[in-house]
Amino acid sequence: MKKIAVAALALVAAGAAMAEVTSANIVGYTTATLSQQWTILGVNFTAVDGSDLTIQNALPYVDGMTKGANATVADQIQIQNASGTYDIYYMSNGKNAKGQSVSGLEGKWAKSGTTTATTDTVTPGTAFWYGRYDATAPLTIKVAGGVSVIASYDKQINVAWKHIANPYPTDLPLNDGIPYVNGMTKGANATVADEIQIQNAAGTYDIYYMSNGKNAKGQSVSGLEGKWAKSGTTTATTDSLPAGKGAWYGRKGSTDFAFTVTRPYTIE
To answer: Which of 103, 143, 106 is nearest to 125 (CA)?
Structure first.
């Protein structure tokens, strides 16, 4: 496990490991370059005071985003809610449905169906779709804030397909950070076992399954039972959920359960 000292730091964490530092508080940012129309991202910072980030502060406007009067003509973010549907926010051009200017709205996220800048917040580990209205050129965005000192976060799996995200600004090894718990379904491949799907640079997915310790011939494989393995392999993976990334958790069972995402570094 990485060891860091609590520090005042501008940290660039684009899938890279966190450096060891010294001082008072840790702050930083992760960057992501979006080349697809739809990308799964994740919130991995708090506000500097440790509270939840507002959506406005988590993802401020940058050049390349498309502003509009509603979600059909603007960039949008979609956050999965407890029912498995989505709360949608759009990047506003400052206008209401009648084309009139609204004070304080331009360049802000507004909830779909409203014309006010949202004050909604997001916790570390919140995954979201970022939908680009115009995806003809890559867009680089930044999520910034304070580094969480919380030792772990619980994630409830209550639908068949759940958005999850890495709540920390360092890569999260799947087998250390998301360990097996009762309620997960083990199997010999991704068609019969719980799975995690991580979107890659091509816009497709790298798939991992929760193994029952068996290979395709039903033979036991040492060290594999209760571990995540990449689809098509029978070895416990060393791959990680990158900083700033979200993923799909695919549940094969019908019973809700929760797992605990463990902090991949220590704080001194």
So the answer is: 143
3-state secondary structure of 212: coil
Computed from CA positions of residues 39, 41, 47, 48, in that sequence, does the dihedral angle turn out positive or negative? negative
164 three-class SS: strand
Which segments of 17-94 are extended strands (E)? 27-34, 38-42, 53-54, 76-80, 86-91
User: Under DSSP, is residue 177 helix (H, G, I), strand (E, B) or coil?
Assistant: helix
Query: Strands 121-122 and 53-54, how do they pair?
Result: antiparallel
Q: What is the pLDDT along the chain (268 residues), one digit of tens a residue?
A: 554 433 333 344 333 333 332 234 688 888 999 999 999 999 999 999 899 999 999 999 999 999 999 999 999 999 999 899 999 999 999 999 899 999 999 999 999 999 999 999 999 999 999 999 999 999 999 888 999 889 999 999 999 999 999 999 999 999 999 999 999 999 999 999 999 999 998 999 999 999 999 998 999 999 999 999 999 999 999 999 999 999 999 999 999 999 999 888 887 6
Q: What is the residue type of 137? A: A
Task: State how far the Cα of 103 lies from the Cα of 96, in Å rounded to an integer.
Answer: 10
Q: Is 223 left (phi over 0), alpha (psi -120 to 50) or beta?
A: left
One-letter amino acid of 116:
T
pTM: 0.89
- Helix, strand, or coil (residue 55): helix
d(CA 108, CA 116) in angstroms, rounded, equals: 9
For 58, the 3-state DSSP assignment is helix
Structural Rg of the chain based on CA atoms:
19
For tokens 């697809």, the residue is 36
